[in-house]
Amino acid sequence: MNALFAFEAAGRLRNFSRAAEELNVTPAAVSRMMQRLEVHIGSTLFRRSGNGVTLTEDGQRLFESTSRAMNLIDDTLTEIEARSRDADVVTISVSTAFTTHWLMPHMPQFKAAFPSVDLRFQLITGPLTGPVNDVDLGMRFVSGPVAGHRVFPIMPEVLLPVRARSYPVADAPHEGTIIRLSAGQPPGVGDPLDAERATTLMFSDYAIVVQAALLGQGVCWGWLNVISHWLREGQLVAERQSPCHVTDRECCIIQRNRHTDRAVVDAVREWLIAQMQDDYRAILARYPDLGIPPLSASG
C-alpha cells in the first residue's frame, strides 16, 4: 500500500524528490519502492531522466486507477470526519407555528433526553409542504406514500375551534371574534363562528393566529399537532359548541430513504412521535364528545 501511495505522488509530481518531500521520506526510499513495484508487476512504470520522470503507457494506466482510488479514499475520509464531527446535529423541517407553540415548550424535556443534540431548523411559515431532501426529518401533512421517503404517521389532521380560557363566552352562540389564517386552511373548513355575526382578525402566519388566541383575542381553528400543548396545559380550551374537523390527511414525520441514517436521527424522530401522541391521547380523553378520532393501532 505504501508503494501505491508513493507511486501516485511520483506520477502526479513527475519527480521522485518532490514525491519524497511530500511523503516525508528520502528520494532513495521512493526510488527503491518504485523499483520493487515494477518488479512485482513485471512492467516498467517510469522513464527516468535527469529532469525527473515520465510515465510509460502502463504507468499512465496504473496512475489513473490509483489516482481515482486515492481521491475516493480522501473523499470517504472527509465524509467520515464530517459525520463524526456533526454526529449530534439533527436538522428538521417544521412550521414556525409548531416550533413556537409545541417544540419550544417541550425543549426542557428534549434537552433532558438529548443533552448533546444540536437541533437546526428549516422553518416554514406557510402551508406545511415541500421537499425534505436537505434535512434529516420533516413534518408534513400527507395522504399516502411519498416517493423516495419513509413516512411515519403521528396523528390525523384534526382542527378544533379554540380560545383562551380568559376569552369571554358570547351570550349568543357563534358570536365573537374569528382569528383567521389568510392562506393554507384545508378545503371545506368554514369559520369556527358565524361570520355574519362575528368580527374578524386575519394573519398570514399561523404562529401569530395561535398567539392571538392565547392572548384572548378571539376564536380560531387549532391544528391539534400545533396546539396540543396549550390545550393540555389549559391555556387554550376547545369550543364545545362546534365539533372538530378531520381531513383525509395525516400529520407525519417524513424521512428520506438513505442507507447512512444515524441512530440519533431515528431516536429524535421516535421521541417527537411519542411526545406528540401522548399529548393527543390526553386531549382525546379531555374532549371525548368533539369527534376527535382515536390514533390508529400503529400509533
TrEMBL record:
PROSITE patterns: HTH_LYSR (PS50931)
Protein name: Glycine cleavage system transcriptional activator
Any GO BP annotation: DNA-templated transcription
GO molecular function, one term: sequence-specific DNA binding
Gene that this sequence comes from: gcvA_4
Family, per entry: Belongs to the LysR transcriptional regulatory family.
UniProtKB keywords: DNA-binding, Transcription, Transcription regulation
Domain of life: Bacteria
